[in-house]
Specification:
two-stranded antiparallel sheet, 2 domains, single chain, binds zinc ion, globular, alpha+beta, 209 residues, 8 helices
C-alpha cells in the first residue's frame, strides 16, 4: 500500500486570511476602528459585537487604542485596548526573524505567546441537525483584534511555510510588511514583491553609495 504523508502543514484559508489581515494592519493608514474590526472579524469568520456578534469592538473615539499612543487629552483610557499596532509590528518582526533569535529568546517568546493565545482564543462547539444528520463543528473564536495578532504571531512560529511568506521590506525608506502569495515553499523574500526588483535595486544602491 502506498501511503503518502505530507510533511508540509496545510495552509488553511482562514489562517491565511488572518495573517493577511495582520499584515494589512501593520501597514494600513487606519482611519476608523470599524475599518480595522471589519477586516479582522471578516478574516476570522466572526461577527463584530455591534452586529450582536462575539468579536469585541471598541468605540470609534478610541481609535488610539489601535494606532497606538496615549488616549487624547481628557479621555479616560479604554478598558479593553484593541491591540496597539506597535505591538503587532514588533511581534510580526520578531516572528519573521525567529530562526535568528537565541534559544533562550525563542523559548521565552513561545511561552509568552502561548499564554496570550490561551487567554484570548476559544473554541465554540456549534451543533446543527439536518434530517437525522447531526453535525458538530468546533469553531475557533477570538476575543478581538489583539487576540488575532497573538494567534497570527504564534502561527508564524509554528508554521514555517506561513512564516516564509511574510516579510518586511529591507529598503529603509519603505519598511512595508508584505504577504507573498506567490511563494511556494522557497526562501523568504527580503523586499516587497509588489515593487518587482525596484526596492531590491534601490536598497543595494544605498548600501554601496
Ligand atoms: Zn519595499
Amino acid at each position: 500500500m502506498l501511503r503518502m504523508k505530507s510533511r508540509i502543514p496545510t495552509l488553511t484559508r482562514r489562517d491565511t486570511a488572518l495573517v493577511q489581515a495582520v499584515v494589512w494592519f501593520c501597514n494600513a493608514r487606519i482611519r476608523s476602528t470599524r475599518g480595522v474590526e471589519q477586516r479582522f472579524a471578516g478574516a476570522a469568520g466572526m461577527k463584530p459585537d455591534w452586529d450582536d456578534g462575539e468579536f469585541q469592538t471598541i468605540p470609534p473615539e478610541h481609535l488610539y487604542a489601535y494606532v497606538g499612543g496615549p488616549p487624547p487629552p481628557g479621555m479616560a483610557s479604554h478598558p479593553h485596548p484593541g491591540g496597539d499596532r506597535g505591538e503587532a509590528r514588533e511581534l510580526i518582526t520578531t516572528a519573521i526573524g525567529f530562526d535568528e533569535l537565541t534559544e533562550v529568546r525563542r523559548a521565552e517568546l513561545v511561552r509568552q505567546l502561548g499564554l496570550k493565545v490561551r487567554q484570548t482564543m476559544h473554541v465554540t462547539p456549534t451543533v446543527s441537525m439536518k434530517a437525522r444528520r447531526v453535525e458538530l463543528e468546533l469553531r475557533p473564536v477570538w476575543d478581538g483584534v489583539q487576540a488575532i495578532v497573538y494567534y497570527v504571531a504564534l502561527l508564524l512560529l509554528s508554521v514555517p511555510q506561513q512564516r516564509r511568506r511574510v516579510g518586511r521590506c529591507r529598503l529603509e525608506r519603505c519598511g512595508t510588511y508584505f504577504y507573498d502569495t506567490r511563494l511556494r515553499g522557497g526562501k523568504q523574500q527580503l523586499f516587497c514583491p509588489e515593487s518587482g526588483t525596484a526596492h531590491r535595486v534601490a536598497h543595494f544602491r544605498e548600501m554601496h553609495r
